[in-house]
Amino acid sequence: MTGDAADRALAEQYEAYPYPARDAREERTRLIVGSPGHLREIDHWVFGAARSRSQPLRVLVAGCGTGDGAIMLAQQLAQAGRPGHVLCLDRSRAALGIAKARAEVRGLANIAFREADLTETGMLGIGPFDYIDCCGVLHHLPEPERTLRDLAALLAPGGGIGLMVYAPHGRTGVYMLQDALALLAPAAEPAARRLDVARRVMRNLPRSAWLHANGNFGDHLSGGDAGLYDLLLNPRDRAYDVPALRHLVEASGLAIACLLEPARYDPALLLPDARLRTRLETMPPFDRAAVAEALAGNMNTHIAYVTRPGEAPPPPDPTAPHAVPVAREMPAAELARQIGPDGSLPHAFGRLAVRIPLPAQARALLGLIDGERTVGGIAEAMRQRGVAPAQFEPAWRDTAATLIRLNRVLLAAPG
Known about the structure:
By secondary structure, the chain is α/β, with parallel strands linked by helices. It contains 17 helices and eleven strands. The chain has a seven-stranded mixed β-sheet, with helices on both faces. A two-stranded antiparallel sheet has the order 8-11. Strands 9-10 form a two-stranded antiparallel sheet. Helix 3 runs parallel beside helix 4. The protein is globular and about 70 Å long.
């Protein structure tokens, strides 16, 4: 095992408390989905809805843990009948065992597991990969820039990486408790003893503690021993605000193609004042994103799709007649039913609820999205209902652009 004392302690942590805690038997009744690594997101945000579904997708999950992202993507490929293979790396034998058991319950034949340290990927003889998933990993590593550079070296031309890292503002209160527990339960003590101290602290946590006011945590606080240990006793836990994440990515020879959801990083949604919006319009995109992060205060992670500079495809055109819109997860018809009488769609950025205005035709347009009908087909269906092209085009353009920025509707990969 390589790395410093904190890195060795981290490796021991995930052997003792694989995270997140998962039971393979639950694979019979549920599929955990999320970002990054969702197949429809990869098609849209990484490949610009231009990479054929018939082209095999070579995937590396760099630090798969107990397998949430890996199982999701392998299952989505299998369900869609798409060719591809998912290779999962993790140095925790215990975590890999859980992920492998989950795959076996599902009967997935397009996934493999390998015990390996991400700091040594250059010596593994693997790659290239069209997509690399690195979710919840870099912020724990001793040299995140170096590791990300090593992963970038494994990318096939035109490929991309999905990242998730912790963000500081939405984790307010966490680092205070980590500091306290570093003194109350030093890392040199046995893991079980440290966990006992953390439980006792949580039972007696003063009401003034900032963590009480932070409602941005679910899995960590309800995820048993593994969740609590990962939140409060992790020996290395960095957080990146938007500028720091951008620096990490660019210092690793990559570029951010997309922050998810894009609308979440638009401060105009939080500032209805016209003069403030005028100021925002003059700001560079990443400065705007930094403003949104600081104003909202509830981002506890950042999710980004990144590519090599100059290799990101142009954003897919949702107005192209041949384009096929598809709901990311919730059926489009259900989205339509959520539109209120005022024509707005409720949307939650974590615990921040907003209402997103949509064109008057949005409800009817959403009802026509089935993952197979093209934009041209939607236009024809609306024409048959009496909606002329001059009415359809702006309504569709605005509806599609809004829902894409919310990551609710995306464009499908071509056949």
